[in-house]
Amino acid sequence: MNGGPIKRRIFMRQHRWTHARLSDYLDGELSHRDEERVEQHTRICPECSRLLATLRGTLRELMGLHDEPLPSVADGVIERLRRSW
Amino acid sequence: MRLHADRLYAVVIRFGAPGGEAEEIVQETFVRAWRAIGRFKGESQFFTWLYRIAINEAKRHMTRRAAQLERVASDDMALESIGDRAPSPQLRAEHQDLRAALERAVRALPMDYRIPLVLRDIEGLSTAQAAAVMQLREPAFKSRLHRARLAVREAMEDYLDVEDQA
Q1: Is the pLDDT of residue A55 over 80?
Q2: Residue B120: which of B134, B130, B128, B135 has the closest Cα?
Q3: Which residues of chain A neighbour B103 with C-beta distances below 8 Å?
Q4: What is the Cα–Cα distance from B87 to B35, expressed in whole angstroms?
Q5: For chain B, which residues make up each domain, given as ranges?
Q6: Shortest CA distance to B103 belongs to which of B88, B126, B122, B90?
Q7: DSSP per-residue codes, chain A
Q8: From the list B1, B31, B86, which residue is nearest A69 (CB)?
Q9: CA–CA min distance A82, chain B (Å)
């Protein structure tokens, strides 16, 4: 980050603010104004840009776990509940 | 009930309970729900209420077996058994490392952070629903979720191709 100490301080403030809101940004839970603020910062901050990209990838993989096949336990559970009641 | 049982099983297994115990927890959840059905006032959605009971039941089991579950959390066997049920061997081969690492990263999270991530990101509940399950205010829930995501992301960084993500 080039520039004087004031610019650097502003940048770091934006950096911390953005870092804390990347999840909300990805979840679409920010106001339009805050979304723009995140986008503005991630355009000039390689660290936040990378964090956003890898967070997005992580979420995509996590969502994929939902469809990971697991055995159905419903029949067994229902049968045992029937027997116990 | 069939659908709820299978979804609860998927949730509980990701909380860290091994298969047999997860099934037991699901069963106990329904027993407790049945006994308490009179107290369900319809102020929350039925599945939200059911998830809450399952979480409490899972925590009860885990407290009882904390030492054992610590071992299970770092045990690849449970993860491999999930991978073994994948439908396509080719797909499994491609994603095995990534999925196993992801499951490991999720299980490595402390319970208070693992639950928000499982409910929101894997089960697909909305922030409001998942916060309600955990009986947390949304800002507190979001803070835990964000920290959990950051921890999983850090663990997964080597597996993620940044060029693909933009």
Answers
A1: yes
A2: B130
A3: 65
A4: 38
A5: 2-165
A6: B122
A7: --S-HHHHHHHHHHHHHHHHHHHHHHTT-S-HHHHHHHHHHHHH-HHHHHHHHHHHHHHHHHHHHTTS-----HHHHHHHHHHH-
A8: B86
A9: 11
Between the CA of residue B4 and those of A43, B11, B86, B92, what are the distances in Å?
A: 43, 10, 21, 26
Separation between Cα atoms, residue B150 and residue A71, nearest integer Å: 30
The CA distance from B86 to the nearest CA of chain A, in Å, is 6
Q: Would you say residue B1 has pLDDT above 90?
A: no
Q: What is residue B6's predicted lDDT score, i.e. its pLDDT?
A: 86
Query: For residues A37 and A10, what is the distance between their CA atoms, to the nearest angstrom?
Result: 13
- What the block records as the tokens of B32 is 């407790």
Give the start-to-end residue ranges of the domains of chain A. Answer: 5-84
Mean pLDDT of B39-44: 74
Contact B100, B92 (CB under 8 A): no
What CA–CA distance (Å, rounded) separates B51 from B143? 20
* Structure token digits, residue A10: 């502003």
Taking residue A53's Cβ as centre, other Cβ atoms within 10 Å add up to 19
CA dist., res. A21 & res. A29, Å (int): 9
Residue B119 CA to residue A23 CA, distance in Å, equals: 15
Report the C-alpha gap between A40 and B119 in whole angstroms: 31
Q: What is the structure's pLDDT at B86?
A: 43
What whole-number distance in Å separates Cα of residue B23 and Cα of residue B13? Answer: 9
